[in-house]
Design goal:
This protein has 222 residues and is of the alpha+beta class. The chain contains eight helices and four strands. Strands 1, 2, 3 and 4 form a four-stranded antiparallel beta sheet that branches. A hairpin with a 6-residue loop joins strand 2 and strand 3. The longest helix has 29 residues. The radius of gyration is 26 Å and the shape is elongated. The N and C termini lie far apart (77 Å). The C terminus is likely disordered.
Length: 222
């Protein structure tokens, strides 16, 4: 007698419980599905993860899950869709660093080109993994007070002059002490030398006050 397939709701339940770290024995007790069947479908999902080099930590769309658990003719569609996604990532990863470009905006463009493409949660997970795997990362070891990282925010911001009601555009200076993560920001009219020097002075004064406060708090606890 041919083995009866589990339905999609049961398959989703198995996948979700496994992603939550639930053991196979506990999944069997919760679902009433045989241990052999649970192992079989989890093995198919695991094989798909190895083949596509992804980690299925969120529920898959029904067509992908059906292709995996039933091992039917829609499996090539899963592979083709994944390959199209990787090509899209390759074409778009460089513009992600441009001002105003986000993964959300790129996904909206992606689903316009590929209406049957991945939903945002799966798209975001795969994009993050793709960037981590394709971009080399260098780990810095910082020492206290060694240096300060400074820059201006990419886009101009604005505020309302409380006296005139005028909308005023401004540059935003940002500084970070990498060891402690302490951040200083300041709005200024421009990036000219005079405004930049003013930011450096205010930043130094602010950091000195913060250091004095931390030192005083530490001494008071001794």
């Amino acid at each position: 007698m041919a083995q009866k397939h589990i339905d999609m709701n049961q398959a989703k339940q198995i996948q979700q419980l496994s992603a939550d770290g639930i053991s196979i024995k506990e999944i069997v007790q919760r679902t009433g599905i045989s241990c052999k069947t649970v192992r079989k479908y989890l093995r198919r999902i695991e094989n798909m993860e190895h083949a596509l080099q992804v980690n299925v930590s969120t529920p898959l769309p029904d067509n992908e899950l059906a292709a995996i658990i039933y091992n039917n003719d829609s499996s090539p569609f899963v592979q083709q869709r994944f390959e199209a996604l990787i090509k899209y990532f390759h074409d778009k990863k460089d513009i992600l660093h441009k001002t105003g470009v986000t993964k959300q905006l790129l996904w909206m463009e992606y689903v316009t080109q590929y209406p049957d493409g991945y939903k945002y949660s799966q798209y975001y997970y795969r994009f993050k993994k793709y960037l981590n795997d394709s971009d080399p990362a260098f780990h810095w070891e910082y020492s206290p007070g060694e240096f300060t990282q400074i820059d201006f925010a990419g886009k101009k911001l604005s505020y309302v002059d409380k006296f005139t009601g005028e909308m005023v555009l401004c540059q935003v200076f940002v500084a970070t002490l990498p060891y402690s993560g302490l951040i200083f920001t300041m709005a200024i009219p421009s990036q000219k030398t005079g405004d930049f020097a003013h930011c450096i002075n205010e930043m130094s004064h602010n950091y000195l006050k913060s250091y004095s406060f931390v030192t005083c708090s530490y001494m008071c606890t001794k």
